[in-house]
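Inputs:
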Amino acid sequence: MDAIATHDLCKRYGSRDVLRSVNLSVPAGSLLGFLGPNGAGKTTTIRILLGLLRATSGRADVLGQDAWARGPRVRAEVGYLPGDVRFRDDRTGRELLEFFNRARGGRARQEMTRLQRAFDLDLDRRVRSYSRGMKQKLGLIQALMHRPRLVILDEPTTALDPLVRETLNDELRRAVNEGRTVLFSSHTLSEVEELCDHVAIVRDGRLIEQERVEVLRARAVRRVEITLDGDGATRSPAPPALVVSRRSGAALCGSWSGPVRPLLDWLAREAVRDVVIAPPDLEDLFLAYYDRRGDAP
Amino acid sequence: MNRAVLRRAFRDTRALLLALTLVVLGFEVLFVFVIGELSGQLIAFWKQMPFVSKVLRALVGIDPGRDVSFASMVAIGLIHPFLLAVLWTFLLVVCSRDTVGEIDRGTADLLLTLPVSRAAVYTSTTVVWIGAVAVLALATWAGIWIGGRAFDSPEPVDAGRYLRPLISLVALSAAIGCATMCASSFLVRRGYAIAVVLAALLLSFLLNFLAAFVPLLQPLCVLGVLYYYRPVDIVRDNAIPWRDVTVLLSSGAALWTIGLWRFCRRDIPAA
């Protein structure tokens, strides 16, 4: 079952289309990185999933139920961290968490204490005295403390130091290991690549890619440097997937896309003195997706 | 309704409510004292000045040439601009807080993604401010009662007569509160919602006032909310004006329902 499934989801503000026929599906138990440049439609999609916005047309199902029509029931099993999380700052962190806990049925106190320790946050200070990072931690605790079946985090690592990021990653992996689902919105590829098993990319309100990370990685381009023996002449023609960008004597520099087996087979037949095959560079792939000039890399 | 939201709304309201209850109570006690001390001189002064009579009729609904009595003068305390200002301030602050206030502050994202319907947020807030309005109305009556017992006055203050105007005061407050909730459901800035309702109230006040001097404006008075709130007449006639109360409550209910409908369907913009 999909934890999230949208069907031709559209959102329009006046004459401006913010989402255009988005068909997103997030398998239950997956950790999906939701990528896209600023203004691509990530937050709008998330807000529709949470019932904060109404879709102009199309449908959004969350945990098998219509996100708008069954809003409160759906949200009982969702944890959410907004991109720009804000709290009533005249309350202490504990008072706020107690309120969220009560509103969700009051069964999260134990997990709240565990998360407070994990994120090392002083809950007895007024929120007005919190730094931005502390507010972000408080937002993460409220999103996770009721152990929701679906966690939706909108750019959660903003203002977090590397140690806290690692704690967050551990918590999210733990949630996924327990069969829960995480949607992790970001515009930073490296954190998504490190954490997620699925990726969806939006650009200009359209979903332009949705795939497993390993599949995308297989599609990505590798940098290749080959030094041949002698004058650099090859015994057989290079495979077409090898794009040579620079040749200097016996040294070749270029890129390789796709599975590496054919490249290794060709190299085995050649007199090779040295070879460097870099890991797939997803950054280039994603930049190509983001680039307005091309619809596909 | 949701207990957690109800409890939070009450907690957010109680300090302001306590402070304003004491202010209202103190004001009414003081007002009864001042009227008790000065009523004779005031009536004589007003009767000599026809222009003042007109102003008083416009402002508080009392006609010094016709029906002035100590009891009616005490009732002015229920329509005194100070009391109205206190009530309006309370209603504008509290009724805009959990709807457009949360959106404006950027905290609506967390509140409205809890497993609580928007209707529950709206009704929980309403229950709290309606209860608070009842407390404030009772504080006005308690002030008159305390003032009547604490100070010497030309006539004994029959506190029972001042219970009837409370129904009208609660109906007026309900109409203003519902209008504020309605405006808050349509707008994205709390300041705009407060400004819209305040402008309507001031216009109503001005209309009532000017109509006493410009007969042409009199037919328009029915459009203003203050036309339906006449505590001096209620005390003088010792009867509840059910027609006025019905107009206030039904217009309030209509605005409240429109606000609820809109709040449940509106987009919540990102902070």
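Residues 189 and 283 of chain A are 7 Å apart (CA to CA). Flag for discussion at group meeting.
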